[in-house]
Amino acid sequence: MAHATVEWTANLEGKFDRPALLRLIADEMRLRSDGVFPVGGIRVRAIRLDEYVIADGAEPRDAFINIDIKMGAGRPAEFRKAFFDQMFAAVRAELGDLFDREPLALSLYVEEAEGWKHNTIHQRLSRTA
Amino acid sequence: MAHATVEWTANLEGKFDRPALLRLIADEMRLRSDGVFPVGGIRVRAIRLDEYVIADGAEPRDAFINIDIKMGAGRPAEFRKAFFDQMFAAVRAELGDLFDREPLALSLYVEEAEGWKHNTIHQRLSRTA
Amino acid sequence: MAHATVEWTANLEGKFDRPALLRLIADEMRLRSDGVFPVGGIRVRAIRLDEYVIADGAEPRDAFINIDIKMGAGRPAEFRKAFFDQMFAAVRAELGDLFDREPLALSLYVEEAEGWKHNTIHQRLSRTA
CA-CA distance, B119 to B39, in Å (whole number)? Predict the structure, then answer.
């Protein structure tokens, strides 16, 4: 499984293509992980942040996008480094010159977890495959 | 203490009894943990997700419910397995045939944490007990 | 870097000064950490919780504020204890007698993480310095 949560500050509304960013993250997991992330377990969501204080709190245009990944344990360290290096570069490219237009902090964190699950999306996928 | 966060995709609005699901999780912690979770420390919340991409992004009915638990460290592994096996089974039963009606991914993750706390709910409980 | 997320239950609306609490957390990180937290990496946000079950679910006034910190790895344990003891005391003082007026659970958790980042807030700060 692979969960991604994309937090974004509300002062970025209209300044980047949010649906495209979510799709890009899901596509990276689906198409560029050599099957490490089963398609039916990919879950990417966005959380809008309306109240925040950034840095010294002095510049209303200061903004951030933070991506938290939760994935199953046991993938080799080399895979993780290569895959997320690639994903982070793709996210930066997708955001384009937003970093020049706004004071912007982008971050990406990855944690591993094992849990309980039950999933009928896999069946939907096998029907449509 | 025991925190639970229930994320749910907005396309499930009206398709399951959300207040009942939150109550069930709190009740499991309160009534079925043999006192491992002090009542005054039980905090269950729901987060609605309005923007997301699931799996291949091709099926608007794809949905997920994700439950993250944060609990104090030090509970034995056997307790954790037994308790959360039971909770997960109870959540599945509460959701009933939603898994057949929608392509749905349910997940439950547990992490341990120690921190700082100050809590006057315990006093409220002892007054009403 | 230092991320803080302040969850608060909606029944606390109007009962404490939320912008002041966010500013206080950012100020503690900026002014009282001896430079351990670079200013441009401080990101504090609030998340409003509209649906929740607390304790036995019997008292609508039961409320909570939960603060999750994510910081870079490697700060000494003594720094962490001293810094967050101080921050927690400052948060309690900021909330004042809210603990007496409402049954309220306050919690603070700290985790370490390393990830990927790209940040042009540092440049904005150096221009205005």
Answer: 11
